[in-house]
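Appendix C: a fully annotated inverse folding record. The material below is reproduced so that readers can follow the format used throughout the book. The structure is listed first as tokens, followed by the designed sequence.
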């Protein structure tokens, strides 16, 4: 994309503006207001066009259709196709909750519609895929669902770690890979504790870097503004992301404050074989069970554990890499087993 253009929003069409206007408070406010009124989300017209194109050009009576969120309006494709042709098999892959998601920008007056839409997807789909048992438990407690049609399949990794090797760096690099959001996961408390611990450790701070890889929320950006050894890093390809993993000594996972989902990058984290500091608030955080009790994983409770534990872990595992031979995540097998069921 031309550097003078910036994608602001997609509402069936792409709205581009000159880069020198992309940070305009007025423009940003217009976009935010628009998103508050577009139900189920701002990608709805785009997904309606996909549903129409598929139905007119490609649809066959016994098709298997898989819709994946986010965005949640993707599942509208499945609802419409199922309405037109009840014989199709529809698999809804749902990674996040919708109607009670704290990041949802719709006005509260849309809440009844959001719940109705969410429920219709869960009931009308032939199979449902969740990425963790925690999300499954959440939805079973919220709606009366047939548990036999629910399958747990993790997100998987975009990176192939088969021939993974470490790249030398003169710095100790701790990386958080992923996005932060208000109010779900802002990383401020975690980073504050980590910086406090490092400052008390006696380590040479000039030889330490913390990388925040992805789109970070305003609160976190403001918090690190004067910290030259904390860097926001962007990558545009899988090879760039692999290089970041290769240079990283220890991975950081920030805690979800008020959301039951499993961070999408945890599959990559596990497969990398790198040490992980997993911050959490409560023992019901799904990341704890998902990551397991490996020696190179520290589950650190934010409210009542001493920062000194962080230093002990960092000093012990800063040069550690767990070489995972013949690593299999089993995701391909899980999907193949599910696809076989669609033919029964």
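Designed amino acids, in order:
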């Amino acid at each position: 994309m031309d550097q003078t253009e910036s994608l602001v929003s997609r509402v069936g069409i792409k709205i581009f503006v000159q880069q020198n206007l992309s940070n305009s408070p007025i423009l940003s406010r217009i976009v935010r207001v628009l998103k508050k009124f577009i139900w189920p989300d701002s990608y709805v017209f785009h997904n309606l066009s996909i549903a129409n194109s598929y139905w007119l050009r490609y649809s066959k009576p016994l098709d298997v259709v898989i819709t994946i969120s986010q965005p949640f309006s993707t599942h509208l494709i499945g609802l419409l196709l199922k309405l037109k042709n009840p014989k199709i098999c529809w698999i809804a892959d749902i990674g996040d909750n919708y109607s009670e998601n704290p990041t949802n920008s719709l006005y509260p007056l849309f809440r009844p519609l959001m719940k109705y839409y969410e429920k219709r997807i869960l009931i009308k789909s032939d199979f449902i895929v969740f990425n963790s048992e925690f999300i499954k438990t959440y939805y079973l407690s919220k709606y009366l669902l047939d548990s036999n049609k629910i399958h747990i399949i993790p997100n998987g990794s975009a990176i192939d770690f088969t021939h993974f090797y470490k790249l030398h760096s003169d710095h100790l690099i701790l990386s958080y890979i992923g996005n932060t959001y208000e109010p779900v996961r802002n990383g401020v408390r975690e980073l504050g504790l980590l910086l406090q611990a490092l400052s008390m450790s006696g380590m040479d701070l000039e030889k330490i870097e913390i990388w925040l890889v992805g789109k970070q929320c305003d609160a976190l950006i403001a918090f690190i503004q004067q910290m030259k050894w904390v860097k926001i890093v962007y990558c545009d390809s899988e090879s760039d992301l692999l290089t970041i993993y290769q240079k990283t000594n220890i991975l950081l996972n920030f805690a979800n404050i008020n959301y039951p989902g499993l961070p999408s990058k945890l599959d990559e984290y596990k497969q990398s074989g790198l040490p992980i500091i997993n911050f959490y608030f409560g023992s019901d955080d799904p990341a704890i069970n998902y990551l397991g009790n490996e020696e190179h994983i520290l589950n650190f409770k934010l409210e009542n554990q001493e920062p000194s534990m962080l230093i002990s872990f960092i000093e012990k595992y800063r040069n550690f890499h767990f070489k995972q031979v013949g690593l299999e995540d089993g995701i391909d097998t899980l999907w193949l087993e599910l696809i076989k069921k669609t033919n029964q």
